[in-house]
Amino acid sequence: MNDPLSQRLWFLFGLLLAAGLAGALLSPHFLQTSTVGYLLQYVPVLGVLGMAQTLVMLSGGPGIDLSIGATMSLVGLAIAAMFGLGVPLLLACALGLGIGGLLGAVNAVLVCVLRIPSLMATLATFFTYSGLALALTGGSALGGFPDWFGVLAQGRFLGVPIHMWTVFVPLAIVLHVLLSRTRIGSHIYAAGNDERAAFLSGVKVWRLRFALYCLSGVIAGLAAIMTLSWFQAARPDAGEGMELLSVTIAVLGGAHIFGGIGRISGTVLAVLIVTTMQVALQLANISQAWQLAAIGLLLVGSVVADNAVGDRLRARLRRAS
Known about the structure:
Order of helices and strands: HHHHHHEEHHHHHHH
Strand content: under 5%
Shape: globular
CATH architecture: Orthogonal Bundle
Distance between the termini: 22 Å
Number of helices: 13
Low-confidence stretches: none
Number of strands: 2
Largest sheet: 2 strands, antiparallel
Number of domains: 1
Radius of gyration: 19 Å
CATH class: Mainly Alpha
C-alpha cells in the first residue's frame, strides 16, 4: 500500500464505485441489467484509444497524440471506400490497420525527425485528417456493410459485447505484459523517466517513440473497425472528441504527462469510470454541455492527482538511484 501507483489504483477503484453510486442516484434505470451491456458497448473503443495514448505518454518527450480521433475517422472512411470499390471487407480492414500505421508514422516523422513538439505536430495532423475526412465525403456517411460484420460490436457473449472479449481484453493483456514483463516495456519507462540516461544505457529512444506513434495509429484503426461494426457505417465525425477523452483516460489512469509513470490497469479502470459517468449523465437526461463540463472537471482533478503521485514516485526513484 506504500507504492504510490498501487494507491492510485485503489483510488481509481473507489472513484469507480462512487461513479456507480452517483449513477444509481441520478437515474432509477442505471441499475438495470440492460444498462451494463449499454455501458460496455462504449468501453472497447474509448479503452483502446486510451491505451494507445498511454503508450505515447509513457515514452516521454513529452508525448501526446491529439490526432488519434481524426485518425480513427479517416481509417474508417478508407475501409468503407475500399469495400465500396470491391475489396473484400476483411482485407479492407487489414489494409485499414496499415493506413492507421502510416498516419501514425506521419506524426512520428513530425515529432521524432523534425523535432516539432508533439502537441503542435499532432494538433496539425488532427486538423489535416479531420479536414480530409470531411472533404472526401462532403460530411456524408458511407454505409453498405453486410449484416455479419455487425456481430463484432453488436453481438453478445454472456451478456457482454463481443468486441470486449475479442479486442479490448486481449489488447489490455498484451500491453500489460509488454510493459511489465519485456525489455521493450522497461525501455519505454526508461525513456520516459530520463531520456539521456536511457540513451546512454543503449535504448534507441528515437526509434522507440517512432514505433509507438505508429502503433497508436494502428490501434486507432482497431477502434475504427469496431465503430464501423457498431454503426454499420463510416462517419467523418466518428472520432470527434475522442482525442480529449483518450487523454483524460490516460492521465486519470495514472500516465504521467511527462512520461515514465503509468500502468495499463489504471487505464482500464479510468475508461470504466469515464464511461460510467457518461452513461449515468445520459440516463439522467443531463445536457451534453454539462457532460463535457463533468469530463473537464475530471481531467483537472486527474492532472492534480497525477502531479502529486508523479512527484512522490520520481523523488523515490531519485533516492533509490
